[in-house]
Design goal:
Helix content: 25-40%
Structural class: alpha/beta
Number of helices: 8
Distance between the termini: 41 Å
Strand order of the largest sheet: 2-1-3-6-7
Order of helices and strands: EHEHEEEHEHEHEEEEHEHHEE
Radius of gyration: 18 Å
């Protein structure tokens, strides 16, 4: 993890300098870009994670992220932005981001989230999971319901795999924060709720039963309706 290559795309020069310095001092190889054009020049197969601002001088960071995902690039992306509404978070996560951190932020939290994302990329104890008509391949990062593909971001795929490994059990937010986000503080953000809401919508199929349920006051359940 200490040698991971991180690309920071941020147009505020002082903030970019502060983030890159902190990451380098923490042992990460780090490049900084103030524009989308500069980010494109720095992108290569060695980039293991992207920290991405949304409002950049030469375009939208969210549009750039969309183009990466459309090209098949699954590099983990942590959005770092001043946009703090629920709608902004949903757009960012649904647009391909793996995590979303609002400015102003603590550098320690940024580092913790980066470490968590990199850990998840490195972990793969089981490569194929099945439950009912669901199939998740953790190596190819693909998911199916029946014979229909489910287009999931990395975090949503990890959530689905976690629910499948706890099928017919109530999974609490605390469990998800601990085992998927790998940090207990994730329980006081709404990131978990946003990601699960998006996953629930993507699992729905016309004429087929709902399989991922919200259990009021308890958590979530993959299985028959509680």
């Amino acid at each position: 993890m200490a040698t991971a290559h991180i690309l920071v795309v941020e147009d505020q020069k002082n903030l970019l300098r502060s983030i890159t310095r902190t990451l380098r001092e923490s042992g990460f190889k780090t490049d900084g870009a103030g524009t989308i054009a500069a980010a494109n020049r720095l992108m290569n197969a060695r980039v293991g994670l992207i920290v991405l601002d949304l409002m950049l001088p030469d375009g939208s960071g969210l549009d750039w992220l969309g183009s990466l995902r459309a090209s098949g690039d699954n590099t983990p992306v942590l959005i770092l932005t001043a946009r703090d509404t629920i709608e902004d978070r949903v757009s960012g996560l649904d647009g391909g981001a793996d995590d979303y951190l609002v400015k102003p932020f603590a550098l320690d939290e940024l580092l913790a989230r980066i470490r968590a994302l990199l850990r998840r990329e490195a972990q793969s104890s089981r490569t194929v999971l099945t439950w009912g008509d669901l199939n998740v391949d953790l190596t190819s990062r693909t998911a199916l319901r029946g014979d229909k593909p489910i287009l999931l971001q990395n975090r949503q795929l990890e959530l689905l795999a976690y629910f499948m490994s706890h099928a017919n059990q109530v999974v609490t937010r605390e469990m998800i924060a601990r085992d998927v986000w790998k940090e207990s503080t994730a329980t006081w953000t709404n990131v978990i709720e946003v990601q699960i809401n998006q996953l629930q919508k993507k699992l729905e199929r016309p004429g087929q039963p709902i399989i991922l349920h919200t259990v009021r006051g308890q958590g979530y359940l993959l299985g028959d309706a509680p």
